[in-house]
């Protein structure tokens, strides 16, 4: 019984770390995919999409992610492997758009917050209130 307990103490944190790593990799992939979709939409329409629904409902669709819409219909988001992905178009004087991926449960589904802008540069921060820095 002691051997099983010892193995569990060693294995469970490692399994959680592997799951968090996979979630973070999926969040980064989603941001890259969405960045490409935004730029493709811009090339064809001369503007960035107002929401993820425009990308999903286009013909042919730019994305195949499941999009969740707020009850007011004013905002939508995507949930990918423990991360919520939000977007904001023309919400900053520095960027035309920002797409952010935030862990649903910090420390359990992910340890980092990520974002990408029209520049295509991925950035991260280690805490919700931290400063974004370029991802190396």
Main sheet: strand order:
1-2-3-4-5-6-7
Low-confidence stretches: none
> How much beta, percentage-wise?
15-25%
Number of strands: 7
Average pLDDT over all residues: 88
What percent of residues adopt helix (DSSP H or I)?
25-40%
Whole-number count of domains? 1
Number of helices: 2
Explain this structure:
- By secondary structure, the chain is an alpha+beta fold.
- 37% of the residues lie in helices and 24% in strands.
- A seven-stranded antiparallel beta sheet has the order 1-2-3-4-5-6-7.
- Strand 2 (76-80) and strand 3 form a beta hairpin.
- It is elongated.
List the topology elements.
Layout (H helix, E strand, L loop, with lengths): L1 H44 L6 H6 L9 E3 L6 E5 L2 E7 L7 E7 L9 E5 L4 E4 L7 E2 L2
Antiparallel strand pairs: 1-2, 2-3, 3-4, 4-5, 5-6, 6-7
Q: What keyword list fits this structure?
A:
37% helix, seven-stranded antiparallel sheet, elongated, alpha+beta, single chain, 136 residues
Give a quick precis of the structure.
With 136 residues, the chain is α+β, with helices and mostly antiparallel strands. The protein is built from 2 helices and 7 strands. Helices cover 37% and strands 24% of the residues.
């Amino acid at each position: 019984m002691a051997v099983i307990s010892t193995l569990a103490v060693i294995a469970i944190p490692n399994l959680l770390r592997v799951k968090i790593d996979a979630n973070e990799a999926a969040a980064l992939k989603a941001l890259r995919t969405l960045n490409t979709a935004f730029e493709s939409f811009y090339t064809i329409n001369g503007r960035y999409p107002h929401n993820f629904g425009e990308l999903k409902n286009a013909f042919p669709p730019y994305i195949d992610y499941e999009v969740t819409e707020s009850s007011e219909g004013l905002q939508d988001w995507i949930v990918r492997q423990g991360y919520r992905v939000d977007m904001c178009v023309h919400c900053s004087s520095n960027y035309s758009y920002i797409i952010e991926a935030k862990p649903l449960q910090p420390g359990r589904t992910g340890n980092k917050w990520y974002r990408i802008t029209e520049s295509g540069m991925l950035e991260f921060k280690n805490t919700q209130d931290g400063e974004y820095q370029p991802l190396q």
